[in-house]
UniProtKB/TrEMBL annotation:
One of its GO terms (molecular function) is mannosylfructose-phosphate synthase activity. Residues 168-328 form the Glycosyl transferase family domain. Residues 46-162 form the Glycosyltransferase subfamily 4-like N-terminal domain. InterPro entries: Glyco_trans_1, Glyco_trans_4-like_N. Its EC number is 2.4.1.246. Keywords: Glycosyltransferase, Transferase. This is Mannosylfructose-phosphate synthase.
Length: 352
């Protein structure tokens, strides 16, 4: 079996790159698939992206012909990605390959619904060049089924993360983590507002650490304007080398997003044993059962977020119980070996 995987390059920070790296770093998966990887997009201006994608398209075509590729597995988002990867899948099918579209976008549904009729028709046709679509959750499966007019096979395969041999949670830790881009969609404004409302009730040794890209270059200004500089700290992008140290200091992980796929930050922190507070959207409830292995609240419900924060900050025993359940959930349902086996089974079903 020869598999060519298409995704983003190293400059494109985020969950999609993390997922792609999980495949490329898994020795057994690479051996069974003779895996090759070509990025089809990069970070930068429109002209830079265009030339990069055109060169990638040529390279992909040559690689398929030269290496007798059986399956082309593309990682897709929304917007230009749906067209770019759609064209790649169309070319791959013309060259005799089976195609897999792995959808990651948190904003796909909103974006698609706002397209004009002709735009929806184009996107629907592009997605139908996939022999199978991988959805990150059951809700997303229904969305893609509607987009493709139920003409394309869709399989739910959850994102996955490497698992530790035991629960690593440090219940004496004092930092609360927000690990996402500093954008409204991720709920950063709601989190800051919640902190502002309850700061007088938060113990003086507890602080909030914000990690992620600040695309608008205004997160520090927001923290200063809300007079939170003594409790909230923006620390930039969290590198792989920093992850272990960061997680060891983390009491809770917070993700108050308004739309998502299945966030890698939730799975990564749960795998470490860190309790999560997140919104009840997309595939998140398929990972977090409210009150059992984490806590859920509705997007924008800042009052509920305040209550959950204060309750968990003050209750170490509850955090430990949630931690153990979170770790077991990832180990049994979202482990990397489980994911790789399901993808290999999908590949074999296409070829057979």
């Amino acid at each position: 079996m020869n598999v060519l995987m298409i995704g983003v390059d190293e400059t494109s920070l985020g969950g999609m790159l993390t997922v792609a790296k999980n495949y490329m770093s898994n020795k057994e998966f690479c051996e069974k698939t003779n895996l090759m990887y070509i990025p089809s997009t990069t970070h930068g201006g429109k002209l830079k992206k265009l030339f990069f994608s055109l060169n990638a398209y040529i390279k992909i075509s040559r690689t398929i012909k030269k290496n007798d590729i059986d399956i082309v597995h593309v990682h897709m988002s929304h917007g230009g990605s749906s067209i770019r990867e759609g064209l790649i899948m169309r070319k791959a099918r013309k060259l005799g390959c089976k195609t897999v579209a792995h959808l990651h976008s948190a904003s796909f549904q909103d974006w698609y619904q706002n397209l004009p009729t002709i735009g929806k028709h184009v996107v629907s046709n592009m997605m139908q060049y996939a022999d199978v679509i991988i959805a990150l959750g059951k809700e997303w499966k229904n969305v893609y089924a509607d987009v493709t007019k139920h003409k394309t096979r869709i399989e739910v395969i959850y994102n996955a993360v490497p698992c530790y041999s035991s629960n690593q949670y440090n219940s004496d830790s004092k930092e609360i983590l927000f690990l996402a881009h500093m954008i409204k969609r991720k709920g950063i404004d709601d989190l800051l507002q919640a902190i502002s409302q309850i700061r007088d009730k938060i113990p003086s040794d507890v602080s909030f650490s914000l990690y992620g890209a600040d695309r608008d270059n205004n997160i520090k200004e927001k923290i200063e304007r809300m007079k939170l500089t003594d409790i909230v700290y923006y620390k930039g992008w969290l590198t792989n080398d920093q992850r272990e140290s960061c997680f060891n200091k983390t009491m809770l992980n917070i993700l108050p997003s308004y739309n998502e796929g299945l966030p890698m930050t939730i799975l990564e922190t749960m795998a470490y044993g860190i309790p999560n507070i997140a919104t009840n959207i997309a595939a998140i409830p398929e990972a977090i059962s409210d009150g059992e292995n984490g806590f859920l609240f509705e997007p924008g419900d800042i009052k509920r977020l305040e209550v959950l924060l204060l309750d968990l900050i003050s209750n170490q025993e509850k955090r430990i119980n949630i931690s153990n359940a979170a770790y077991e959930t990832v180990k049994n349902k979202f482990g990397i070996d489980i994911h790789m086996q399901k993808v290999l089974e999908l590949y074999n079903s296409l070829l057979n």
